[in-house]
């Protein structure tokens, strides 16, 4: 049975292309959580210091609260996959409608390296473990058996997972105070993924599809807004649903904004054998987020956010060998962002601290420079860089290829073990560039390209978890939106 986590990493579904750390403990249902839920729970339980949010989610707009800012709104605004500041208000002051479509993708590779145990006993153990996990859902009917079809690659590179995600978003104003938003996506993940560590002996074929939808209704006033959201997601062996409540309140001078969010989600697994009395498995998650956005002057906007999350249920990953995890996970994330207008471009920086009771501690630092372009400065080109360092979970078992029974764990932490490299200690460095072009008063097009490299040796202050192959993720995203 494929047990899943509604908001956090222990699953087969990868983070969307523009999240960090290819080996990171990312949400299994990244596009299924809905904008509000992922904004809350995704930041806290996404793990690994991820500072980007999954596709379809909005980052807080750092252009608001509004003071007369020195830089163009397109450059000073916080990054979002949904409306930009220029799309927000019409000539009569009402919010404009918006329709947007996007297609994103990612390709993950790892360096080839020698793996395996010390002798024949280890080989027998590995062969038994490789076939442990049952079948992998998907239209192709592929199984969880070991596959080496895509291992051979030029330059000693192992081709692993490919992800593609088309998505659509609609914002429809309903008078002056009400706004209805909706979004949907269909994600496909294919290739091979390891059952333990990054050992190529443990690669198995995957071909998975997932469909998601969410909706949100917002009532806005002159100094406040309140939103109620619902979301759902479904694949061949699980179904997720949830609700969220968000609100923000502005000061009288609109220089300060306080925001609060609450979220709930439930993930239900179908029985491993249909038509049997086997009960469906459930996982529940709760999240709360508090934040303050403050305009410091015509050149500066800062934002501070805290997110707390609690997840309960069977959090073991059934697609991994020897994976036994606690049945709850508490996490907190603290994020600080600062946008500063330099006179010719907007400097956007951020720092994020993540910590959970599994022992994972992560820091992420990011910086971007948004350069206005065009006669009206509504277009931007934004290069960015991001660096992440993460510690290992308490129950992560370090790689030991010399063990006579490799990969069987030789030690436990309170009865728990994992060989999941996403819960190991490592560091990651990523760079990207995004172009957002205003085609006219109503049409905008965007393109983003990025690459990220993750290695154990890049962890700060120590050498990280040994025996893991470096991972590289290439990502892209193209979008077109029209305001009306």
Automatic annotation (TrEMBL):
Organism of derivation: Pseudaquabacterium rugosum
Pfam family of the protein (one): DUF3570
Region entry Disordered, spans: 1-33, 55-95, 130-150, 217-244
UniProt-recorded name of the protein: DUF3570 domain-containing protein
Biased composition (Low complexity): 137-150
């Amino acid at each position: 049975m494929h047990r899943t986590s509604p908001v956090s990493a222990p699953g087969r579904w990868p983070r969307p292309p523009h999240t960090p750390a290819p080996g990171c403990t990312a949400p299994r249902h990244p596009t299924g959580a809905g904008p509000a839920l992922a904004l809350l729970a995704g930041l806290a339980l996404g793990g690994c210091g991820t500072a980007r949010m999954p596709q379809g989610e909005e980052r807080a707009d750092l252009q608001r609260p509004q003071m007369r800012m020195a830089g163009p709104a397109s450059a000073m605004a916080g990054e979002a996959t949904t409306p930009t500041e220029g799309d927000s208000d019409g000539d009569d002051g009402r919010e404009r409608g918006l329709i947007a479509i996007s297609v994103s993708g990612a390709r993950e590779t790892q360096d080839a390296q020698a793996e395996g145990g010390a002798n024949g006993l280890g080989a027998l153990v590995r062969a038994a473990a490789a076939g442990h996990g049952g079948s992998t859902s998907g239209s192709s009917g592929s199984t969880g058996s070991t596959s080496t079809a895509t291992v051979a690659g030029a330059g000693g590179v192992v081709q692993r997972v490919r992800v593609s995600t088309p998505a659509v978003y609609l914002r429809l104003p309903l008078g002056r105070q009400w706004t209805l938003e909706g979004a949907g996506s269909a994600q496909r993940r294919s290739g091979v993924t390891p059952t333990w560590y990054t050992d190529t002996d443990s690669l198995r074929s995957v071909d998975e599809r997932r469909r998601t939808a969410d909706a949100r209704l917002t009532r806005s006033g002159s100094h406040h807004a309140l939103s109620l959201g619902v979301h759902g997601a479904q694949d061949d062996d699980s179904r997720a649903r949830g609700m969220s409540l968000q609100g923000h309140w502005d000061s009288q001078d609109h220089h300060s904004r306080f925001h609060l969010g609450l979220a709930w989600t439930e993930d239900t697994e179908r029985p491993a054998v249909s038509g049997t009395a086997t009960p469906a498995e459930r996982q529940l998650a709760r999240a709360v987020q508090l934040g303050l956005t403050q305009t410091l002057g015509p050149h500066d906007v800062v934002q501070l956010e805290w997110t707390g999350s609690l997840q309960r249920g069977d959090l073991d990953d059934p697609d991994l060998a020897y994976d036994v995890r606690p049945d709850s996970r508490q996490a907190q994330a603290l994020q600080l962002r600062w946008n500063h207008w330099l006179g010719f471009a907007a400097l956007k920086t951020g720092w994020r601290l993540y910590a959970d009771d599994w022992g994972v501690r992560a820091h992420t630092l990011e910086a971007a420079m948004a350069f206005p372009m065009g006669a009206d400065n509504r277009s931007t080109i934004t290069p960015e860089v991001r660096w992440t360092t993460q510690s290992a979970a308490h129950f992560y078992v370090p790689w030991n290829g010399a063990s006579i029974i490799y990969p069987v764990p030789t030690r436990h932490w309170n009865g728990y073990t994992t060989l999941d490299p996403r819960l190991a200690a490592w560091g990651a460095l990523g760079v990207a560039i995004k172009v957002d072009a205003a085609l006219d008063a109503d049409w905008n097009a965007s393109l983003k390209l990025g690459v990220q490299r993750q290695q154990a040796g890049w962890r700060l202050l120590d050498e990280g978890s040994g025996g893991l192959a470096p991972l590289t993720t290439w990502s892209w995203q193209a979008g077109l939106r029209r305001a009306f």
